[in-house]
Amino acid sequence: MLAFYYDKSFEGLLCAVFDAFKLKKMPECLLAIGQVEPLLVSNRHNVEFCDLKYERVRLALINKISKAALRHLMYVWLSELPESDLIVFRYICKVFKSSKSIETDFADKDVLFVHDIAKKVSRERHRIMQFVRFSAIDNPLKDTTMPNEREDKIYFSNIAPIYNVLPLVLKFFKDRFADQKWVIYDEKRKYGYIYNLHSIEPISLVDKDDLIINSQVNQNYLSKDEVLFQNMWLRYCNALTIKERINPKLQRQQMPSRFWQYLPEMKSISK
Predict the structure, then answer these.
(1) For residue 2, what are the β-bridge partners?
(2) In this predicted model, what pLDDT tens digit does every residue of 135-182 receive, in sequence order?
(3) Domain limits, the chain
(4) Which tens digit of pLDDT belongs to each residue from 219-256?
(5) What's the chain look like in SS3?
(6) Is the dihedral of CA 118, 120, 123, 129 positive or negative?
């Protein structure tokens, strides 16, 4: 069994594709450098990242498949499912080996896998776009991230998607809230992005352990207006609710219950 070791980045994966065709050898597994290898591994190859190799494969792939197929490959990569990188690797290799398009060859298990997983990741992306709720907090990042900006409030949202879809929704929120400073943080993967009215930058909250408590924004960080608005919104939703028609089963069908804890209007229901 041949194992390729690479840096577990998408760019590194394309370099692995380049090496596979250069060596005329296809690996049975893709491993991170230093990862414990399966018992049956007998041959090993370390993939070195090189801009030239990456660019050659990237440009060739763009010319070979459609934008939709490229997007599906990225979705599968962001799914973080076991061996998803190996599936993407085999798919790309089949693209280059085939003289015709394989995008609709659903008899091929790799093509079918890419199609099905991309659909699930896309569905999760749309759910995040629908169910993200921002809370106005006193800016806890003003001393490090935005030293030259006004030290005022910032809109913060905490999420924990099944798949790593946060990079896929940034443009949507930038276009929708272009005049506001906001942060979207993935508590499951411990990273997030901040929009400071000029650009979107990655952030980490390792030095702000008390900002999120039990998946909820710490009440001590909420601005006075935010506490008032959340209470008013909850009272408004409760006033409109017909108690006799509350149907939690239907609510879970329309909105997965894992999102309820992030929605102010669902506080009285999720308890």
Answers:
(1) 43
(2) 888 776 655 444 444 457 889 999 999 999 999 999 999 999 999 999
(3) 1-64, 68-131, 132-222, 223-271
(4) 888 888 888 888 888 888 888 888 888 888 888 888 88
(5) CEEEEECCCHHHHHHHHHHHHHHCCCCCEEEECCCCCCCCCCEEEECCCCHHHHHHHHHHHHHHCCHHHHHHHHHHHHHCCCCHHHHHHHHHHHHHHCCCCCCCCCCCHHHHHHHHHHHHHHHHHHHHHHHCCCEEEECCCCCCCCCCCCCCEEEEEEECCCCCCHHHHHHHHHHHCCCCCEEEEECCCCEEEEECCCCEEEECCCCCCCCEECCEECHHHECHHHHHHHHHHHHHHHHHCCHHHCCHHHHHHHCCHHHHHHCHHHHHHHC
(6) negative
Q: Which amino acid is at 239?
A: A
Paired strand residues for 156 = 135, 183
